[in-house]
Every structure is written in C-alpha cells, then in structure tokens.
Amino acid sequence: MRAVLQRATSASVSVDGRVTGRLDSPGLVVLLGVSVQDTEAEAVQLAEKVAHLRILDGEDSVVGAGAAALVVSQFTLYGDVRKGRRPSWTRSAKGDQAEPLYERFITTLEGLGVPVERGVFGAMMDVALVNSGPFTVWVDTEDLAGPRRSNPPGGHPPPSPEDRPDR
Predict the structure, then answer these.
(1) Predicted model pTM
(2) Which residue stretches of 22-144 are H helix?
(3) Given 6, 9, 45, 74, which residue is catalytic?
C-alpha cells in the first residue's frame, strides 16, 4: 500500500459538487493507493504508521494532536509510466480487492482515535486542500520492512527546522 500524506490546515473532497469529507482544522490528507499484492496486515501496518508519524506542527502525530485525517482512495499511486505514453494500471488493485483494504485502513485509524473524514471509493472526486509547509511525504509498506537507507553518495539529510533557509 502507498499513502501520500499532506499536512493541511484545511481540506475537502467533493463528489458531483457535494462535499463528502472535510478538514476544518489542521490535520492530514491521506491519498491511499492499494496494489494487487496488498493484504489486510499491510492496511493495519500503514494505518498505525500514519497515525503515529510525528509530522504535524511541533513534531506531533495526528493521534498526539487529536487531529483528523481526510482519506481519499487513489488507484493512480500505482501507475507505471516506465514505458510508452500512457500509464499502466496493472499494479493497482481492482475495486473488489482495494475497497475492503481501504476500509480496513480507515477503521484501524479510527480505532487508534483518529477522526476520519473520507472521499467516496471509486468515485470521480475533487480534492481541495491548503498544504501547510508545504509538507508532503510518501509512505509505502514495501519500505517499512527494511532498515532505513543511508544517504546516497553526495546526498544530504533533510535540514532540521532551525537550519532551513526559509525560516
């Protein structure tokens, strides 16, 4: 499973002009992709990771801050653009496999105390958000199993908040 997390001061998702979920205070927008190889255990693992990541202001998590998450299904996160001019969706799970894992992700977040707003699974949605920071991070369950990779040769660790030139 993959999740793109965006720290937001506000956000909403609409289907056919009707708002189906919204964040009126700071929280996370979670764009969630499910692959053909994903399992319920990965949905739980990813939800637990998202709930406890300290990525909100003050290095707080959504659980610690009592913040909400707006979860939107997004099969395009598994689009493969290596060949040709059109993305391939062969790694994206079809709805009958993906929807139960999407729901399991949400129920796990809720069980951890995270208020969850949502889009409509499989619908064409309009997502609006004010990205705070801007701050966006990608979490993939394939990466959660192994050790943290060291910086590539010539690479640098991300700056601490005190070292950032824009602060």
Answers:
(1) 0.85
(2) 40-52, 62-65, 95-111, 141-144
(3) 74
Q: Is residue 121 among the annotated active site residues? A: no
- Answer yes or no: 75 catalytic: yes
d(CA 31, CA 138): 10
Q: Which of 37, 39, 76, 90 is catalytic?
A: 76
Q: Report how far residue 139's alpha carbon sits from residue 163's, in angstroms, rounded to the nearest whole number.
A: 24
Nearest to 123 by CA among 25, 27, 13, 36: 13
Catalytic status, residue 76: yes
Q: Give the pLDDT confidence of 97-143 residue by residue, as tens digits.
A: 999 999 999 999 999 999 999 999 999 999 999 999 999 999 999 88
Element (H, E) at 36: none
